[in-house]
Design brief:
Shape: globular
CATH topology: TIM Barrel
Number of helices: 12
Number of strands: 10
CATH superfamily: Luciferase-like domain
Distance between the termini: 12 Å
Strand order of the largest sheet: 1-2-3-5-6-7-8-10
Radius of gyration: 19 Å
Helix content: 40-55%
Order of helices and strands: EHEHEEHEHHEHEHEHHHEHEH
CATH architecture: Alpha-Beta Barrel
Length: 334
């Protein structure tokens, strides 16, 4: 019996991770295929992300990828986790989501983040600088206004008059911005429980009802891996943990490598410390273990929904993890 009994929506974020021996095009096709698979398992939403000039991540154009995902599926909600608003003009973002909602009515979500290009070179190429993230609240307000009406004779078509549910991805002050704007909040990760609980409480206390949401809505996000044994589930975390350690020591986020290759590496002390840190704190284990851990997280946070992500080299093991998670949480398609 599921610990959550199917009462809490479970959604998926996929970052279109590149795997060794394959390229970005294959990673994008894998994302679309995964969306079809998790839809059949009963997941609530499927979101894609935005990364620029990262060799190990293929998802650079989330609204384009969301369109491909929506076209390949029929029921699951599709959205972004998220579009990094400081990288774009709010008018253009409104237009893009207006097109998506027009083509796939009632299925599109608009997840929005406040990060800006990671390096000076990327920011220059985007026509942005690191200070642009400082006006996220203003950019967010302008974006939402485009859905209501035009300004100075300019209209965001076909977005104007449409309702595309917006979500704020909490980074730093994101929870406060979401509360002031009266928008749903997506917050992680599950490893930093004290910070997570404090931010959620602050959000609920300060929330002001808006035309977009009458009450607070909290989506807790984190990495989740499920397998037949706890050790097998831990192996699902190995590829991403090594990629993170590699990036922090060499400045380049690489494609995912098989866990056998990673564990055979001779790492420096710093690499080993970062790698081990990358393995800690994520929810992983058997179906029973993960269901119990998720039940506790939902109880502690009062979350309305859970957004899970898993990045691993073995695509079959990845799909098996999502199958097991669906079964463990009582999703309708499991």
């Amino acid at each position: 019996m599921s610990a959550l009994n199917g009462t809490t929506p479970i959604s998926v974020l996929d970052r279109s991770r590149v795997r060794e021996g394959a390229g970005g095009p294959q990673a994008l096709r894998d994302t679309v295929r995964l969306a079809r698979e998790v839809e059949a398992l009963g997941y609530h939403r499927f979101w894609v992300s935005e990364h620029h000039s990262v060799p190990g991540v293929a998802g650079s154009a989330p609204t384009v990828l969301a369109a491909a995902v929506a076209a390949a599926t029929s029921r699951i909600r599709v959205g972004t986790g998220g579009v990094m608003l400081p990288n774009h003009q709010p008018l253009v973002v409104a237009e893009q989501f207006g097109v998506l909602e027009s083509l796939f009515p009632g299925r599109i979500d608009m997840g929005l983040g406040r990060s800006v290009g990671f390096t000076d070179g990327v920011r220059r190429a985007l026509g942005r600088d690191k200070h642009d993230a400082g006006d996220f609240a203003g950019q967010l307000g302008e974006l939402l206004d485009w859905f209501a009406a035009g300004r100075s004779g300019v209209h965001a078509l076909p977005a104007e008059g449409l309702r595309v549910p917006p979500f704020v991805l909490a980074v730093g002050e994101g929870a406060d911005i979401a509360a002031a704007a009266g928008l749903p909040l997506v917050i992680g990760d599950l490893r930093s429980r004290e910070k997570l609980l404090a931010a959620v409480e602050r959000y609920r206390t300060a929330f002001r009802p808006s035309a977009w949401a009458e009450r607070p809505y909290v989506v807790v996000a984190g990495t989740v891996a499920v397998a037949a044994t706890e050790e097998e589930a831990r192996r699902l975390l190995v590829s991403e943990a090594w990629a993170g350690a590699y990036a922090r020591t060499r400045g380049d986020f690489p494609p995912l490598a098989a866990w056998e290759r990673v564990e055979a590496l001779e790492m420096t002390r710093k690499e080993r410390d970062l790698y081990e840190a990358g393995l800690r704190g994520h929810l992983h284990g058997t179906e029973e273990q993960v269901a119990a851990a998720l039940e506790l997280a939902v109880k502690e946070t009062g979350a309305d929904e859970v957004l899970v992500t898993t990045s691993t080299y073995d695509r079959d093991a990845l799909l098996d993890s999502y199958r097991r998670l669906a079964r463990a949480t009582g999703l309708s398609g499991s």
